[in-house]
Description:
This protein has a single domain (about 1-130), classed as 3-Layer(aba) Sandwich (Rossmann fold). About 60% of the residues lie in helices and about 10% in strands. It has helices at about 5-15, 20-30, 40-50, 55-70, 80-90, 95-105, 115-120, 130, and strands spanning about 1-5, 30-35, 75, 110, 125. It has a five-stranded parallel β-sheet.
Amino acid sequence: MIIADTNLVAYLLIDGERTEAARRVRQRDPDWRLPTLWRSEFLNVLATTVRAGVLDEDSARSAWRTSLSLFGGCEEEPDAEAVLTVAFRARISAYDAQFVVLAKRHGVRLVTGDHGLLRHCPDVALSLEDFAAETLPP
C-alpha cells in the first residue's frame, strides 16, 4: 500500500512526461489510498488542463470517470487535529498534510511529484521516480 497524492493520479491519467513513471508505480504497488480531498484537487487539475488546451472536455470527463473507478473506494478521511499538527510542524499546506497524515497512520510512503512535500516531509514522501525504480524495495 502507498498513499498517492493527486499529482500521482494526474500523472497516471493524463498523458505526459511522467505518465510512464506513474504506471510503473501502479504496477509496483496497485494499492493506492488517498484522502477524500483528492476528488476536489483532481477536478481542479482537469479543469486547469482543459483551460490550458492539454485535454478537451470529453477527455477530462473520461479521466474523471476513470479516476473514480480506480480510486473511489480507496479514500480515507484523516484526523483534522493531526492534519493541523503536521501542517504547522512541516510548514506545508493543510491540503498536503492530509496525505502525510494518512502515510504516517499506515506506516507507508507518500508517493508524490510535489517537490515541496519531498523537501519538507522526507520521512514519508518519496518521488514517483524513486518508488518506481526497480532497485528500491517496496
